[in-house]
Amino acid sequence: MKRILITGGPGMLGTALVREWTGRAILFPVGITQFDLRDAAAVGDAVRRLAPQWIIHTAAFTAVDLAESSVEECTAVNDRGTAHVAVAAAACGANLVYVSTDYVFDGTKGAPYREDDPTNPINVYGRTKLAGEAHARGVPGHLVVRTQGLFSRGGKSFVSAILGAATAGRAISVVDDVTTGVTFAEDLAHGIRLLVEAGATGTYHVSNTGAVVWADFARAVLDEAGRADVPVARTSAAATGRAAKRPPFSALDGAKYAATVGAPMPAWRDALRRCLKDPAARTGA
Predict the structure, then answer these.
(1) pLDDT for 168-193, tens place per residue?
(2) How many alpha carbons fall within 13 Å on the CB side of residue 145?
(3) Is the separation of the CB atoms in 152 and 16 below 8 Å?
(4) Residue partners of 137: CB distance under 8 A and separation at least 6
(5) 20 to 30 Å CA-CA from 172: which of 21, 134, 197, 252?
C-alpha cells in the first residue's frame, strides 16, 4: 500500500482525501501543529520521519481578500511553504501532488482554460499559488492539479455560507458578472486518486463539468436544498468592494483529465445534489 502524507489533513479537501484513500493506502494527514509549512527544518524532519511515497499538498493560505493585505503571510505559506515541501519530497524520493487554482489565470480568455494556456494572476493569492506550481514542478513525478470553487456541505465553503445565510434569514447577494467552475470536494479527491493510479504527471485541470455564474450557483444551492422561497439578489463584482480582483471568466477545461482517466468529472449540478443529499457521497469505485 502507498504511504501518503496529506498536508492540510483537517481541511475540506484533506478530509475528503482521507475518506477516498482509506483502505487503499497508509495515510498521514497532518495539520499545521504537526507540519508548519513556514518551517523548512520541521517540514524536512517530518517528511524524513514519515517516509511517504506520495505527498498530496492541499494546505494553503486561501483567504483571497485577506491575502491582499497579508502578502508576506500568504507568500510564506503558498510560495515558500510549497518550496519547503517540494525540497523535502525530492530529498526522500516522494512524488508530489500540488493542488492549485483557476486564479493563476486573468479570466480574459472568454472560454474554459486549458492546461497550456498562458497564466497571468491578478491577485496575491493567484500569484503565490502560481509560484507554488513552479516549486512543485521541480520534483520528479510531480502532479499539479488546478481546481476551483471547492465546496462541501460542512466546513467553510460557498455552499455552507449560502445555506447558513438562508437558515439565519440574512439577505443573500451574489455577483452575476463572474463565471467560474465549482468542485465538490469528494469528487476532487476521487479525481486525484484516479490520476495518481493512472500514473499521471504534469498539470491537470480537475473541476466538476460546466461553467456557472456565481449568482446562478447560489440559486441552485437554495433550490436543491428546498429553499426556493429564499431570494438571491444579484450584484456586480465591483459593487462588492472586495480587496482582491477575481478573474471574470475562469472555468477550467477538463478534457485532458477525462482522456487520462477515461471519463469526465461529473456535472456540477449532479455534484451539488449529491453534496446536499450525502456530504460524503462518492462518484464510484
Answers:
(1) 999 999 999 999 999 999 999 999 99
(2) 28
(3) yes
(4) 144
(5) 252
Confidence of residue 279 (pLDDT cuts 50, 70, 90): low
The DSSP letter of residue 86 is H
| DSSP strand pairing (212-213 vs 179-180) | antiparallel
| Domains of the chain and any CATH numbers | 2-277 (3.40.50.720)
Q: What are the residue numbers of the active site?
A: 125
Q: Cell numbers of 194, please?
A: 484516479
Q: Which DSSP symbol is given to 28?
A: E
Q: What global pTM score does this model have?
A: 0.95
End-to-end Cα, the chain, rounded Å = 17
- For the record, the C-alpha cell of 170 comes out as 440574512
| Strand blocks (E) in the chain | 2-7, 25-30, 54-57, 95-101, 143-147, 150-151, 173-175, 179-180, 183-184, 202-205, 212-213, 233-235
SS3 label, residue 104: helix
